Amino acid sequence: MPTLRPDTMSRRGLLTTAVAAAALPRPARARDRPLLTVVSPNGSRQRYDEEDLAALTWHDIVTHTVWTDGLQTFRGPYLRDILVLTGVTADDLALRRLTLTALNDFRVDVPARDAFAFDPILARNANGQPMLVRDKGPLWLIYPRDTTPALQTPEFDERWVWQLTLIEIT
Questions:
Q1: pLDDT score for 148
Q2: Which fold has domain 29-169?
Q3: 3 state SS of 4
Q4: CB 112 within 8 A of CB 96
Q5: Exposure check for the chain: N or C terminus, fewer CB within 10 A?
Q6: Where are the alpha helices (DSSP H) in 34-120?
Q7: CB-based contacts of 123: which residues, under 8 Å, 6+ apart?
Q8: pLDDT tens track of the chain, all 170 residues?
């Protein structure tokens, strides 16, 4: 039998290590660390990871913001598409409010009817790149500010929640 140096591994050792590694619990799937959680009025929670959001139809909003320079292109699913996945009807949602919470616990209440009246998106990408936490990501509620003059007010500017992580329908 050949003599092994201390820094080499025999085939048996390699196989034993591989079997042991396979028996370890797998890393938590992204669903265990969701990008977004939505709480419906009955208290049920829906969690959305990267794959869940990617499976939805995405839309572009090209607009200026008060926080960035120049025209920006944002991409993500409509807020309304996320809300109706809770099972709450559009008519019922029109009478409700949304409490939006960011990673830093910043909170703002928004009329749920905004989701249908203005078609805001939950932007995951900005200018063709996934948004990182340091760039107001991973999700930023974006309104089509340039195409709707009514949205160009401080009242609506307060509704642009970045680093969005939680939506509670009340």
A1: 94
A2: Sulfite Oxidase; Chain A, domain 2 (3.90.420)
A3: coil
A4: yes
A5: N
A6: 50-55, 79-84, 90-93, 114-117
A7: 61, 74, 75, 76, 131, 137, 139, 140, 141, 142
A8: 444 444 444 445 434 444 444 444 434 444 567 999 999 999 999 999 999 999 999 999 999 999 999 999 999 999 999 999 999 999 999 999 999 999 999 999 999 999 999 999 999 999 999 999 988 999 999 999 999 999 999 999 999 999 999 999 99
Half-sphere CA count of 74, side-chain side, radius 13 A: 31
Residue 138, preceding bond cis, omega within 30 degrees? yes
- What is the pTM (predicted TM-score) of this model? 0.79
Residues 6+ apart with CB under 8 A from 49: 29, 30, 31, 33, 34, 35
* Residues in CB range of 5: below 8 A, 6 or more apart: none
37 near 165, Cβ under 8 Å? yes
Residue pair 79/115 in contact (Cβ under 8 Å)? The answer is yes
109 with 98: CB under 8 angstroms? yes
pLDDT at 33: 76
